[in-house]
Amino acid sequence: MEENKLHVLVNDLLPDYIDGLTSPETNKIIEEHLAQCSSCQKTLERMKEKPFVLDPDEKIEIDYLKMVRKRNRHRIWITICLVFFVFTSCFGMYVFLFGTKTSATLLNIDTTVAPDQVKLEVECIEKGRKVSRVLWHKQGKDVEAVVYTVPGKEEKKTFSYKIDGLIENVEVAGRIVWEEGKKIPAELALLYENKVEYIGDVSKVSRLLEKMNVSELIGSYTLELDNTGLIIHSVRPINEAYVDRESLLILSMIENVSFVTWKSQDKVETVSVEMMDDRLGTGIKEGYRSLAVFADNIEQLEQSEEIRARECVCE
């Protein structure tokens, strides 16, 4: 009788024994019984081989959780795809429809100001891009044109802006093209953007001379400072026809420079602020503060040189 009760008890404990949930003392009793009972041994072997089967309610619950997770994954992927689609669409519209704001350094600009309109001919010089649109802004007597470009084949485009009243200043793509009622040559506008306050700032002085294309006139050169004077050493002498104009550019665009000297072998040419003031009958340093005055001074010098050249021919 006692042996039968032990047999039933061990059978009931076998699932817990397999899962390691029984105590060491209980394990000892079960193992001693298993050693003597072939029936319980077979039962134990069947239990170990039989696959684990979920209760029907538990299976339904797990299937439901799997379905919920699957739906959530689908929603997450759909959301990611929608976000990506919206982003790429907005980026495409920005690049190909609205365009990118472009600076004057990447544009060929020709501006005409008439009493009733501002006419702008503009072309992008950056390969693979073209001008798409221009936004105009007017404040008082000042007009600003913001130029946008998009990918495409380069081509010149014309835009116009109707105006009421007098216009004094026009700025296109960040560059002044019309100031105080005067058209500003692109070359002078570029130099004015690179003007230098202090002659001791060698990097800025070098950049200014680079924008002036000085190396095309005299080849390679080195710079030397003499207090407020700038001495330019070169192997090739500067052509006399360019001395005054290039000197005026430097004296106007470096605020505290007082003279510029061109040295090449035995040839030395020096031009000072006082010499240019006397020649033009004006203070050339005003050109540092006003682009229109700067352009007037250059124009006046060129006209005087043309007159001098004609006089030499006549003689």
Q: Descriptors for this entry?
A:
alpha+beta; 315 residues; six-stranded mixed sheet
Quick structural overview:
The protein is 50% helix and 25% strand. It is of the alpha+beta class and 315 residues long. The chain folds into three domains: 48 residues, no CATH class; 83 residues; 126 residues, no CATH class.
SSE pattern, N- to C-terminal: HHHHEEEEEEEEEHHHEEHEEHHH
The biggest sheet, with number of strands, parallel, antiparallel or mixed sense and barrel status, is: 6 strands, mixed
The rough form would be described as: elongated
Low-confidence stretches: none
Q: Can you give the helix content as a percent range?
A: 40-55%
Number of strands: 13
First-to-last CA distance: 151 Å
Mean pLDDT: 84
Could you describe the 3D structure shown?
The protein is an alpha+beta fold. It has three domains: 2-49, no CATH class; 101-183; 189-314, no CATH class. The protein is built from eleven helices and 13 strands. Helix 1 (2-18) packs across helix 2 and helix 8 runs antiparallel to helix 11 (291-314). The longest helix has 43 residues, at 56-98. The model has no long low-confidence stretch (mean pLDDT 84).
